[in-house]
């Protein structure tokens, strides 16, 4: 943590620009010098903000954000802190963990929907910026953040946190592919302690799966799903593909509600309708007709971040109020889900069934129990990452009984790694 994070003359945008001349006189810390946590606060740190700071990438770890106490201490000392995450669900988790700090998604905080030249000043107001899950950022987005940081004269301390062995983002590139990753201004700190995992059995499994792939070919049946839900009613099914997730959601509703009349049938999230895809691309917006019978659902739009109405938030249906679906979220908020009209004039409710989900959809969630069906082979980090969603080995099970693992290389500088054959016990 930077020792000079007290607010000084550059705490607001006007003050920052006025004080630019002063900050340019500050010397950068030479290579080999003590890190911020090892050194004593300097006079410059006591007087105002630090001179130009390095970008620190803390990688290879599992668990919550680094140094939560250090982040709170910086905020208590007057630093303006921004915490960001790649998904709305993870941002909601951070907002709950750090209620007094500014929290947003990466795309929202850094205005990723605008040309970069129109958003060069977004980092000026902050002293400390933490970006969670750097492994899910594309090369383009990572380089955009570096550009914005340099436009702020490298004054904010910019911290990227993540683990490239975990689930990659939806884009084909990562920050590893960027030349900026190798720049001297990007200093790396490798962390090796598992913070969230307290179970020694799960710890050993994660150490194995960290560099392993998998092979599976068994398809769960209605009897399988009925048995699993009877034993572990709180479980969430995790799959690789949308089709497998849709199948398990259908089987779960059959197992739980059978032929009973639903509370309502509503047009739900079109992205959950597998008929809308051709070769993996969304080509239509036909809503999926979804029966609600006290069902478990997941919200699919970022409509009100302050109350947890964000994409990926789990909820339970309480009833209907006219055309509104009344739900209680996993964070305890009672919300009314009303019909929403897209730009293409398609009316649907921003929710989907929540018994099963793809791995990408539960990023940032810590689940009570999971049942994993790895329906597509050779998905990078799928076996390892899915096992990190819980805190104990007893809270994880497989949909199928026979499974093999094939070791794969981990992420390499400039790429994600390639598979090599080797068998180990799962």
From TrEMBL:
InterPro entries from the UniProt entry: P-loop_NTPase
Top-level lineage group: Eukaryota
SUPFAM superfamilies: P-loop containing nucleoside triphosphate hydrolases (SSF52540)
Polar residues bias locations: 395-410
Name of the protein: Uncharacterized protein
Biological source species: Effrenium voratum
Bias kind Basic and acidic residues: ranges: 22-50
Positions of region (Disordered): 1-71, 395-426
């Amino acid at each position: 943590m930077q020792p000079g994070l007290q607010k000084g003359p550059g705490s607001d945008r006007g003050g920052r620009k006025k004080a630019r001349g002063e900050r340019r006189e500050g010397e950068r810390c030479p290579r080999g010098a003590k890190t911020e946590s090892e050194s004593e606060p300097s006079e410059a740190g006591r007087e105002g903000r630090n001179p130009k700071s390095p970008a620190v990438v803390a990688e290879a770890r599992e668990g919550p954000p680094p140094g939560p106490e250090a982040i709170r201490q910086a905020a208590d000392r007057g630093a303006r802190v921004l915490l960001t995450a790649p998904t709305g669900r993870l941002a909601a988790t951070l907002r709950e963990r750090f209620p007094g700090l500014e929290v947003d998604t990466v795309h929202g905080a850094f205005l990723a929907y605008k040309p970069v030249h129109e958003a060069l000043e977004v980092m000026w107001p902050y002293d400390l910026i933490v970006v969670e899950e750097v492994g899910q950022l594309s090369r383009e987005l990572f380089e955009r953040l570096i550009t914005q940081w340099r436009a702020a004269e490298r004054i904010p301390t910019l911290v990227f946190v993540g683990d490239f062995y975990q689930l990659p983002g939806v884009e084909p590139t990562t920050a590893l592919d960027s030349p900026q990753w190798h720049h001297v201004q990007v200093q790396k700190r490798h962390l090796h302690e598992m913070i969230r995992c307290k179970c020694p059995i799960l710890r050993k499994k994660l150490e194995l799966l960290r560099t392993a792939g998998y092979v599976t070919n068994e398809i769960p049946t209605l009897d399988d799903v009925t048995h699993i839900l009877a034993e572990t009613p709180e479980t969430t099914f995790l799959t690789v593909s949308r089709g497998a997730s849709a199948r398990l959601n259908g089987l779960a509703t059959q197992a739980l509600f059978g032929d009973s009349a639903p509370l309502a049938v509503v047009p739900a999230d079109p992205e959950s309708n597998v008929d809308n895809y051709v070769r993996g691309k969304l080509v239509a917006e036909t809503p999926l007709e979804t029966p609600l019978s006290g069902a478990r659902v997941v919200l699919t739009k970022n409509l009100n971040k302050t109350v947890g109405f964000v994409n990926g938030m789990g909820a339970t249906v309480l009833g209907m109020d006219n055309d509104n679906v009344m739900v209680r979220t996993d964070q305890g908020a009672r919300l009314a889900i009303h019909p929403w009209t897209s730009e293409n004039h398609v009316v649907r409710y921003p929710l989907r069934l929540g018994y099963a989900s793809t791995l990408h959809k539960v990023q940032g969630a810590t689940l009570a129990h999971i049942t994993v069906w790895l329906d597509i082979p050779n998905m990078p980090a799928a076996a390892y990452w899915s096992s990190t969603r819980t805190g104990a080995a007893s809270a994880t099970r497989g949909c199928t009984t026979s499974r093999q693992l094939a070791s794969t290389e981990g992420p390499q500088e400039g790429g994600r790694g390639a598979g090599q054959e080797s068998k180990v016990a799962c």
